[in-house]
Input
Amino acid sequence: MTKEILDKINKFTRREFTADELYTFSVILCDNEIDRDNERFSDDALEKLKDLFVGRTGIFDHETSTSNQTARIFDTELVTDESRKNKCGEPYKYLKASAYMVRTEDNKDLIAEIDGGIKKEVSISCSASRRRCSVCGCDKAVQTCSHIKGKTYGGQLCHVVLDGITDAYEWSFVAVPAQVNAGVTKRFTDGDADKSACEPAAENERLLRCEIRRLAFISGGKTAAFAAEVAAHGMNEVQLAGLKKAYEKLAGHGKPEVQLSTESKHEQTSSFKL
Output
């Protein structure tokens, strides 16, 4: 471990640590490829995430509790692989992060699992305020269009381009990620709940149920998420919006905190480069 790396890490610590006390590893957080949900990050979004993810903590399954914190990112790099194209025919780009942990008796098994490739997949939680249709350019966060994700129009696969990144929350070890090479837990901004009247009712209700499930998961884990899903079943859009606001307060995602919400996708991948 070089002095430059130690200096970057020690910016986040209360005392200076030595190389022997630390464990470092690299991870691909996300990329510009179309994921399993037919969504992808724009190049500008990746650039913004590169800056925002420095200092962000790593947890498990997006459960936001201090006891769940396991690592912290101390450096990021946006990498372009000119030898590879994404599904849009553009050069493949991915966001690589360097993270550290303090070696302790409690985390020695986790370190062994990372080295052994067991703990590998990750996803990120961030805010994307714009959701652009790849076919017509319509911002689906504020209005609707006739194009449907996953369908082909004139030989072009319709997908949503995520842009307008406003914040990055955390990155998590997960079991089933959404992107093939990297993953993201996508949520919509608080303001989008008011804009959602422009979306078709069925799609809007689906998005609200996803957000309610995610907020419940943040505030109470898997049991709470399941209970929220049951409670939301059969509700109309107005009722769902009210339930979402209630869970926002529980999860600490009310409007005063200006945090983004994105659609909950628990299927995200990232590969460690160990």
Observations:
- The radius of gyration is 19 Å.
- The chain has two domains: 3-136+154-189+264-273, 191-257.
- The first strand starts at residue 22 and ends at 31.
- Residues 182-200, 253-274 have pLDDT under 50 and may be disordered.
